Amino acid sequence: MIGVGSIGPAPPATGAAGQPPSDVVAAAPVVAVENHVVTVDIIDAELADVLSQLAQQAGFQLAITGQLGRVTAAFTRASVEEALRQLVHDHELMLIYRAPDGEHGPLQLVQVDVFAGTPSRRGPVALTATQRTTMLAEVSQLVAAADRPYAIQRLTELVGSADPTVRARAAWALGRVGGPQAAVALAAATRDQARDVRVQAVYALRSAQAAGAVPTLGNLLLNDPDARVRRAAARVLGSLPGSEATSALTAATHDDDVMVRREVAGALRRRGVPATP
User: Fold this and answer.
1) Which domains does the chain show, CATH number per domain?
2) Which of 10, 25, 77, 88 has its CA 20 to 30 A from that of 163?
3) Residue 77: what pLDDT?
């Protein structure tokens, strides 16, 4: 829970003539972390400097790409993650967690990468091989920590990574974790631009036993432009019970791809549905 505060430009105090009073001394900027709780009270400070102070006190590594500009912010009782998102709302964050005491130890924030500008303004940022390896390892740690509330939230962030390999692995992990929030993220991943991510999301929906997955899979089976995605959707639908899945399969019996038609025909045959001429 973040205390009452504000973020944005704050006009300076002025005297009767609209000028700053001569006896007003600007307050020193405050960035304090105590027991993992963050207090921020700053006016028109360099955002990079503020983040550096936060990183030093909270104990994570910081990497900044581009010019972040200045920020005015005031809030209390924020977690480190909440504080970062409040401060960097105009830029993109990448938070990296590790379990320092072993795979099953508590996850800790160890690195924060900040990219100036939102994706729509700066385009995608390619990960380095080291960053990709680190994030893939993080996905495995998050699966092991699935009972912790932050695990699914972080996996949901990773399924939106700039790297398709990370997105596919995060989709797999969400399938292992399961639950309503994972199902929502996986449904979104079935619309990913990368074919391999969509395929992984299809299989993850089955692993997650996601309620309401049949309409999503049926839409993919009928409309996805890549035959490999349609094959996966047919295979998963064939493993799901119910008339809704049968109807979705029946609608795809004339698919352009022979392998999709074979998957559909086999699934319908196992259900006792006569082949369509």
Assistant:
1) 1-7+27-117 (3.55.50)
2) 88
3) 85
How many CB atoms sit inside 10 A of residue 3's CB? 11
- pTM score, whole prediction: 0.60
Encoded tokens for 102: 């072993």
Q: Taking all residues of the chain, what is their mean pLDDT, rounded to a whole number?
A: 80
Q: Could you read off the pLDDT of 251-266 as tens digits, one per residue?
A: 999 999 999 999 999 9
| Residues 41-80 pLDDT 10s | 999 899 999 999 999 999 988 888 888 889 898 988 888 8
The whole-angstrom separation of Cα 141 and Cα 123 is 29
